[in-house]
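Weekly modeling sync, notes
Attendees: AB, CL, MP (scribe)

Item 1: holo prediction request
CL wants a bound-state model with FE2/S2 (inorganic) cluster before deciding which constructs to order. AB pointed out that an apo prediction alone won't tell us much about the pocket. Agreed to run with the ligand included and paste results into these notes for async review.

Input as submitted:
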Amino acid sequence: MPVDPKGRSEPGFTRHAFICGHERAEGAARPSCGPQESLDLMRQIKQRVRQETDENIRVQKSGCLDHCEFGPTCVVYPEGVWYGLTSEESIEALLQHLLTGEIDEEQTLKLE
Ligand code: FES
């Protein structure tokens, strides 16, 4: 079985976060996450994760996640938990989730 430079012999991540970086033109029918500095936020979250753990956790940008009105939008797998990263509390909850696996349900995105 081959091993990659990070010592992995199987694909996949302990937790995998996708943060939307999609950008729509001004005046578009729906808002988008890119103009809300979602990629800067993604870089900050990525850096924090790297600083705080050696675990196999991936944070990356995505295209539109189709929950545009709640963005910057993020989803974490394998749990399939969604966040609207609109407050310090929601950003900290995402970090906590990524670093420990603990989910603060009060900070997750809920569509009612
Ligand atoms: S533009 Fe970010 S979820 Fe659609």
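Recorded for review: Residues 5 and 11 are 13 Å apart (CA to CA).
Action items: CL to compare against the apo run; MP to circulate these notes.
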